[in-house]
Amino acid sequence: MPTALIAEDEPLLADELADSLGRLWPELEIVARARDGIEAVRMVDEHRPDVVFLDIQMPGMTGLDVAKQLGTRAHVVFVTAFDQHAITAFEQGAVDYVLKPVAVPRLATAVSRVKERLGRAPADLSGLLRDLAAQRGDGRNYLRWVNASVGQTIKLITVEEICYFKADSKYTLVVTPTAESLIKKPIKELCDELDPGQFWQIHRSTLVNVNYVAGVSRDFRGHLQLKLKQRNETLPVSESYNHLFRQM
To answer: CB-based contacts of 41: which residues, under 8 Å, 6+ apart?
Structure first.
């Protein structure tokens, strides 16, 4: 039996979509519903649906963000109010879409196309997602979350929660106000993917979220140290990055 997740922050629209799918595709099992992007990613990890019906405009993470995170783990149908330029991009990619308000004949077409694809691996949407981000005027699509190991579990952490990243042997330590966890993404790669206006490199092994910087001091040798909000430790600043804090 095929399974699906509905990600839609408007409960009435989610109900309408579920009811229409029940009539058009009776054997499809709706295993979960998500009301924001972060919840959608977590539910995909938990339920492993075959198909995800993704609202593009959701709080937390947009449907485009969620699709990027999913990779090729599920077939995607976007539910969108996008204009014709974006629809053209959808039609050129191996993905389907349904315009809001949802019309049953168009949903039936999407269902038919998804059924045909279920026997194949889900499409790689990375190129399409880059095109759509550019059309929306987002500029660079900076990293917005990481999947980090906490004991035996994997936790999704948004970058706004992160105080700093620090290289730790083969891993990178992710530090929030209340916890520490590990990811395999190296500092060099994070430098390329994070918003440079939010995360500053202060050492070859450290990236700090400027929103968590409480102040700057000097140790007994005259080296800069960053004091952090909601953390007790201080972070050393390499001399080559001292210029970032001259006005502090």
So the answer is: 61, 66, 69, 70, 145, 156
pLDDT of residue 138 exceeding 70: no
Which residues 6+ apart lie within 8 Å of 137 measured at CB?
A: none
Q: What is the pLDDT of residues 110-123, one digit of tens each?
A: 999 899 999 899 88
CB 43 within 8 A of CB 17: no
Q: How many domains does the chain have?
A: 2
Pick the last residue of a domain from 135, 168, 190.
Answer: 135
Cα dihedral 207/213/217/221 (nearest 10) = -10
Encoded tokens for 213: 């910087």
Identify the domain containing residue 48 by its residue range: 3-135
- Give DSSP secondary structure letters for 25-42: -TT-EEEEEESSHHHHHH
**pTM beyond 0.90:** no
Enter the tokens of residue 139.
């500029």
